[in-house]
Every structure is written in C-alpha cells, then in structure tokens.
Amino acid sequence: MDLDAFTELLTSRGRRALEEARELRGADPVAAATRLRRTYDAALVSAALTQTALRERARAKFGADAELMFFTPHGLEQATRADVAAHRARRLTGCALPAPAPDTLPAPNTAPDMAPTPDMAPAPDMAPARDVAPASAGGLRVVDVCCGVGGDFLALARAGCVVDAVDADPLTVAVARANAEALGLADRITVRVADAASVRPEDHDVLFADPARRGARGRTFDPLAYSPPWPVVLDLVARSRRACLKVAPGIPYAFIPDGAEAEWVSVRGEVKEASLWIASGASGASGASGASGASGASGPVARRATLLPGGHTLAATGAAAPVGPLGRYVYEPDGAAIRAHLVGEVAELVGGRLPDPMIAYITGDEPVDTPWAARYEVAEALPFSLKRLRAALRERHIGNVTIKKRASAVDIERLRADLRLSGDKSGVVILTRVLDKPSALICHPTPPA
Hints:
Blueprint (H helix, E strand, L loop, with lengths): L2 H7 L2 H12 L5 H9 L4 H21 L10 H6 L3 H12 L47 E5 L5 H8 L3 E6 L2 H13 L6 E5 L12 E4 L4 E2 L2 E2 L10 H9 L4 E5 L13 E7 L2 E9 L6 E2 L5 E3 L7 E7 L3 E4 L13 E5 L1 H5 L3 H8 L11 E3 L8 E11 L2 H10 L2 E8 L6 H8 L5 E10 L2 E9 L4
Parallel strand pairs: 1-2, 1-4, 2-3, 4-7, 8-12, 17-18
Antiparallel strand pairs: 5-6, 7-9, 8-9, 10-11, 12-13, 14-15, 14-16, 16-19, 18-19
Helix pairs in contact: 1-4, 2-4, 3-4, 6-7
C-alpha cells in the first residue's frame, strides 16, 4: 500500500470500498478481490483488503478501536498495545485513564491477577519537572518521535496530553493522522513528517521515543542499529526535561542511561516491552561507546516490573534469595520480574529459595499465592535420564505433558517425541538444574487457594 492508495481510502469512495471489504471478511481472498474489482480499481481493492486484514490482526492490541483505525504492516507490528500505552500514560500524567481490554486470552500456566497488597502498590508517577504545566492547565506537552501509527500518542492524548508527533515516513504520518481523527483526538495531536534528530525536545515538557527496531534484514536487538540509532536517542534525552523511551525487553543493561528507571511490562504472563524513565537534568551521553549514560542523571539504574491488566508492580530492593534444597513447590517467576533481575524479591514474597543459584526457579515448602509466579507442586524429582523420565511418566499415566526448561540443552520437541507417552492424565515436566545437577521435575500446576 502506497501513500496514494491510502489517501484514496480516506475518501468517501474509499470508505465504501473499505466497508464492503469488511463485509467480505472471512471469504476466499480471490473471490473477495474479484467481487470488489467489479466496482473499484485494483489499487483501491488491494488497499481495502489489506486494511481489513490488518484491522482484524490489530484487535489483539487495540480491541474495539481497531475497527476505526488504520495500519501499515510494520506499523502494527511495532505499535504498543493499548493497555500498555494506557499504563504508561497513567504513570506519566497521574490520570486515572481506564485501561482498554483487547481481545486476548490469558497465557496458559500463569498465575491469575490478584488484588494488590501493600508490597505490590501501583508504580508511583514520575515527579514532574519543576516547570512542567499540570494536566489541569491544558495538559503536558509531549513530543512523540518515531510515532508510528500512533499507539502511544492516542493514550497520551486520552490522558490529557497535547502531543506533537513526528515520523520520517510520509505514509506512516498519514496513517497516524487518520487515527487521531478517527478516534476524535485530532484537537490534541499534531502529526508531521520530520526526522527525529531535528526535534527540539527542550521545547516540550516530555520526550517520548520509540525508535524502530526493524531494519532491512528484519528485527534488530542492537540499540546501535535502532532507527534513529541509540546515540541520537541519547542526545534527545540529554536535551529533554523528562523522557520516556520504549525499548525491547532484551535491551542490554549497558545501554540503559545511568539514573534511569527501567520498567519491564508483562501482559497476562507475556513480557511485551520495557520502558526507560529518565527524570529532568540529563545532560549528555557518557561512555566510550556511547552505549550508556545520561550523565546529568547519574546513579544506578532503578529496576521495576509491572503486571497488566492488574497493575501490580514490584521494585528492586536488593533482596538476595538463599540457596537450598528442593521443596514441595516450584515457583516460576513472571518474565518481567526475571528481566528486571527481581527473582530475589519474588523469592522473598513466597518465602522461597533457589534450588540452583544460577537459575530463575524458586522452591518452597508452603503454597503461597502471588501474581508474580506460577506455582507447581513437585510430584517427583529425578536426575535427568530419558529412560527414567519416560518410566516415571508412564507409571503416573501421564499422556499429555507440558515441558519447561531452563539451563538445559534438551530439545523439547525431540524429547516429547522420544517419550512416546500414552495415558489419560496431564502433567508438567521442568528440566533444570538442582544444585548444579541436571534434573527433571514432574509437577502439577496448583491454582491459587
């Protein structure tokens, strides 16, 4: 889809084509295209069918809003989920913005959300910079560089912010502008074509940046290969009053600016992204490689994990988990807690210990309910051996098994085939190390009390 075809989609004729394409959703693609070609030209038919397919995929991220929005394939892939964007907007503004509920189902074998307890209080809002206008005075002025199709600026505008959004791609800008209009937020959002490096963050209250993480060869995990590259992003941060950067969950810690708070967000048990929150005073990048440091915001990196949709949050306290023998239960910490190096804090919540000091499984003797870990009851623990594991599972009549592993080189699908199981019961096999010995744990998930 090019800019001309997308522009035609926004005309009355284009919207009719889009509505007819929506009515043909689920039909054979060739038959749908043939039917639409009786009325519309090939370019418009292709744009309408593409947009309909993208809207269907977008429901997982945007819920009901997806039916009104417009997308590009890459724009949809990188766009922030509506619930994550709403969480970030709430943190930034303190606005009680209700989080949308996209059409997704909970991931299997994850602990359900629970009511927050005092040690899982909602994340505090970033303290406003000294001269930042409060929302009641017209809203924070946010510049959103690399805005994409607008997933983040929509949430910011709904939270009361006034957003200046930029992207280097004219088609993406047209799509983003159409989304602001479609959702009734155009009066709070300006979208324009511009290079991120040309933005003046000092003219705004907050910088939000979501650098593209996909190049010609596909997804990149190297911040120096982001677009714009990490040094350009850090220069923008250094000139900002406050900044929030959306980054991949696997960002190396060496690239996190000194003094920032790094927050990993998990949605229904799946880690979706990380955000770097940087308070006012940043004054430039440091380090020989330019990989780390906004030197004016010096100090250690603060770490936090957040679970959505419940809003539970856990911050680093320096807790260190003891190491001890395998107990009756094994706890699998949520991925956000693992990414944030908060396994010690989760172990403290459940009164647990590590069966191996280098692996993020926790063991304990009591069943403690927490949203921060899935819990499994250990039925049998044995040194890893295909023959012994197969015999133990058959003895228990386990024919359906979920296999999890950490610090194991075993190929799960090959193992599943080699086990040749039959039986009417289900179980969980955890392949890991226990006190540095390769082990297999036969377990059963335990629901909260």
